[in-house]
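Q: Structure tokens for this one, please.
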Amino acid sequence: MSIFINSDSKVIVQGMTGSEGQKHTARMLASGTTIVGGVNPRKAGTAVDFDGTSVPVYGSVADAMAATGANVSVLFVPPAFTKAAVIEAVDAGIELAVIITEGVPVADTAEFFAYAQSKGVRLIGPNCPGLITPGQSNVGITPANITGSGKIGLVSKSGTLTYQMMFELRDIGFTTAVGIGGDPVIGTTHIDCLEAFQNDPETEAIVMIGEIGGDAEERAAAYIKDNVTKPVVGYVAGFEAPEGKTMGHAGAIVSGSAGTAQAKKEALEAAGVKVGKTPTETAELMRAIING
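A: Here is the predicted structure, written as tokens:
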């Protein structure tokens, strides 16, 4: 089992013919993802060869879905064109759109997220590494060779910390690891993933990685307290950050005690979550739970 993607997922790549799209499509194919097409209106009817695998290019998401039965799209589209690309995917009826693009204007994200919600389409991102169900499907830019399948679910705001946690717990493995992105508005939240992992019979325990700024982790703590029965361990990036300092992610802004790593840690611990001071300590807490 897994959440959001599995071996049956048929993936199209919006922006596949660009340099980033080609690079990461090759990596996704190499990790076993079923990629059935790319989308580029100017190159419809052509194909791109990836080490002997020919992937056709369609003029629109609707055309690609009609021809292939695709149900997932991953977007490597420049920020200025991301809103239009997401709306196109939503209008075509895609089930899941994964937006890797960094630097998408927050107003654009708010607009296309509200539109996707109204149509029942799940978005992940923007400014995220995507998600991976090891051995089945890898949609985005997560390295597929750092971990295998297992019994842990992972949800993280940070792409780099997603990779580190996957590597640290590679001896146990993961059902699905989801990098949700750190922008102020994102399509899928910690809570969305916690709910899905709680309902996934194969996921035995959950790692949740947050960071300073905003109140997403505090809201997730309240949700865990009321709804999650599986063990959760957490890590909050930014314990050493000076107050008032804007960090790398657009959403990581500290104001007063709200939004600080310590406040988030306390909220999570009050909900029964064990919180590590470092990623390695967090991994050890999870290992103790699984092996205990």
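A few notes: DSSP finds nine helices and 14 strands in the chain. The chain has two domains: 11-124, 146-291.
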